Inverse folding.
């Protein structure tokens, strides 16, 4: 392989989000010998994974794909730059999956609230049991998860969270607490209505959002231009009239337009990104995420998405058509590429940040 080919291959490897440890899969993964660390070097979650029969695909996804702390620092930076004058407190995470970002958002300031919206009820339920429970005592009262379509957000149904189970079990003798429950139900951020009993977003007086976000290329799940514009209009409607921001990321570039299989090795599992042949007419690709665990256990197609690969100008046009005042693009050369050393503005090696 020539120097140029090697460089191209290296760039492909790093073309995924947070992909500094990816490498192209060249061997039969069924025979992987995973690097298993000693138990003392494992985090609690990793130990949990090693102990359980098969770890949840959601836990594996959160570990390998997401980095909510980094996302939040960008959200704060963008809000201060483009709106300013106040602290952002109210976040909406669209296409939230397990709402990992939302729960992280709640952690560092007790005034913060979060709304998560997704089509996948299993992911939302997993969130209530595994993520919200780690926020602290008031976590459930500051987050509202809605099950539904981002194209019809107001019709989405509130997902029951853990404390509601307790509320339902109250007896008549506990009248005083029932009164408190009524009070809770009337507040904006408490997810305490039954989803089969009219508990839809339209009926909730939710705080206007300072920030709405759609991460991990989720807007690629929308395939039609009209859908994209419709979605962006709903976002604008949800944002505070005092000023707010919508932040999304986008998947694209030359490496996205052909078949590709990448993998990233973690201490106790291997994460595989499989990209199908690119459909140049529809501009679509299919992404499958697989997890290979130790003892040859595999979670094949743990997640699978059909993505339309929108271009930056298409996104800008749709945002403007939906009514957004300004659109800013932030780009980052993926860390570790040869070009980082030579390209103006990106010459800071591995700590490359997004640049406007
Ligand atoms: C690529 S995942 C992103 C998950 C999460 N936001 C993250 O950062 O990793 C896309 C998510 O969007 C959800 N989704 C796809 N189409 C949707 C729609 N029309 N309305 C609501 N959620 C949708 C899927 O269920 C899935 O959880």
């Amino acid at each position: 392989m020539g120097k140029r080919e090697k460089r191209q291959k290296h760039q492909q490897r790093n073309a995924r989000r947070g992909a500094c440890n990816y490498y192209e899969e060249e061997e039969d993964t069924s025979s992987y010998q995973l690097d298993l660390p000693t138990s003392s070097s494992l985090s609690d979650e990793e130990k949990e994974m090693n102990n359980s029969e098969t770890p949840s695909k959601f836990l594996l996804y959160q570990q390998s794909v997401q980095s909510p702390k980094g996302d939040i620092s960008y959200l704060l930076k963008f809000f201060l730059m483009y709106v300013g004058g106040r602290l952002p407190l109210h976040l909406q995470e669209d296409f939230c999956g397990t709402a990992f970002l939302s729960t992280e958002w709640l952690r560092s300031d007790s005034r913060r609230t979060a709304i998560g919206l997704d089509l996948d009820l299993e992911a939302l339920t997993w969130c209530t049991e595994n993520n919200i429970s780690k926020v602290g005592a008031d976590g459930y009262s500051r987050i509202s998860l809605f099950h539904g379509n981002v194209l019809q957000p107001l019709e989405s149904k509130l997902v029951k969270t853990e404390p509601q189970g307790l509320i339902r079990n109250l007896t008549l003798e506990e009248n005083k607490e029932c009164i408190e429950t009524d009070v809770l139900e009337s507040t904006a951020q408490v997810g305490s209505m039954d989803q089969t009993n009219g508990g839809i977003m339209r009926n909730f007086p939710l705080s206007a959002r300072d920030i709405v976000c759609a991460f991990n290329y989720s807007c690629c799940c929308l395939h039609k231009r009209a859908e994209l514009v419709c979605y962006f209009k709903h976002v604008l409607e949800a944002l505070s009239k005092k000023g707010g921001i919508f932040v999304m990321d986008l998947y694209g570039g030359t490496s996205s337009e052909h078949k590709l299989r990448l993998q990233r090795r973690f201490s106790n599992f291997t994460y595989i990104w499989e990209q199908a042949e690119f459909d140049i007419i529809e501009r679509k690709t299919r992404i499958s995420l697989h997890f290979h665990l130790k003892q040859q256990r595999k979670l094949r197609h743990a997640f699978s998405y059909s993505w339309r690969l929108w271009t930056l100008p298409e996104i800008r046009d749709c945002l403007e058509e939906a009514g957004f005042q300004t659109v800013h693009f932030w780009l980052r050369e993926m860390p570790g590429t040869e070009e980082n050393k030579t390209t103006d503005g990106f010459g800071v090696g591995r700590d490359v940040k997004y640049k406007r």
Observations:
- Residues 10-40, 165-197, 336-350 have pLDDT under 50 and may be disordered.
- The CA atoms of residues 172 and 274 lie 55 Å apart.
- The domain at 251-309 is CATH 2.20.25 (N-terminal domain of TfIIb).
- The radius of gyration is 22 Å.
